[in-house]
Design goal:
Helices cover 69% and strands 0% of the residues. The protein is an all-alpha fold. Keywords: Membrane, Transmembrane, Transmembrane helix.
């Protein structure tokens, strides 16, 4: 029974590390705040996270609009056409809503770039194929830069994984192979030490993950 109690912090550490993580939300400037009155403070409703687009698929969509415009279609007609890649249907709908009302829909930086280019072309008129092609080129360059940063941070991410799991594996091996370690971890002080070490290990894992993700954005 004491061995089971001592192993609970390790199980919690493993479950916390392996939990599913939602995609990182990138905040955009100009997000409206919730107004409050002097008498009551209303709790803001949770905002819906904007879908994260694939920049390469979004670049293909921009190039498809440019081809349609060069073929004689109106820009509005080309924008209203459904995308060839169904994975970006949600973000394309968000871009259309943002073009209709910029203060209603929040977009990711890549989608905001496309929306700004399309809005400028619709408002100012003139040739719109070249700006769309340039926007597609910028999206491809951003995707290549993000991939490069992710490759450069691979060693740091691997180090974070190793430093997180190495203490857990070593402790499990010592508990299995050493009678003295088993006697120590089954005492109240040993359980407290294992719990404190697990919490510190989780804190270090969270901090390393935060640093690496911020550097690889």
């Amino acid at each position: 029974m004491n061995e089971i109690v001592a192993a609970l912090p390790l199980v919690g550490s493993v479950m916390w590390t392996c939990r599913p993580r939602p995609p990182v939300r990138r905040l955009t400037p100009g997000e409206p705040t919730v107004s409050t009155t002097s008498t009551t403070r209303r709790r803001p409703w949770p905002r819906r996270r904007p879908p994260t687009p694939d920049p390469i698929a979004l670049a293909h969509w921009c190039e498809g609009i440019a081809r349609c415009v060069r073929g004689g279609d109106a820009l509005r007609t080309a924008v209203d056409r459904p995308p060839d890649d169904a994975s970006i249907t949600a973000i394309v709908e968000a871009i259309r809503r943002h073009i209709a009302d910029p203060h209603r829909t929040q977009l990711t930086p890549d989608a905001a770039l496309v929306a700004a280019v399309v809005s400028a072309c619709l408002d100012q008129g003139g040739p719109s194929a070249e700006p769309l092609d340039r926007a597609a080129g910028v999206l491809r360059a951003r995707a290549a830069e993000r991939d490069e940063r992710r490759v450069q941070s691979a060693q740091a991410r691997l180090s974070a994984v190793v430093l997180t799991w190495l203490p857990v594996v070593v402790l499990v091996l010592l508990v299995v192979t050493s009678d003295e370690v088993r006697r120590v971890v089954t005492t109240p002080i040993g359980v407290m030490l294992v719990a404190a070490g697990s919490l510190l290990n989780l804190a270090g894992w969270w901090w390393m993950r935060r640093i690496v993700e911020r550097a690889s954005r």
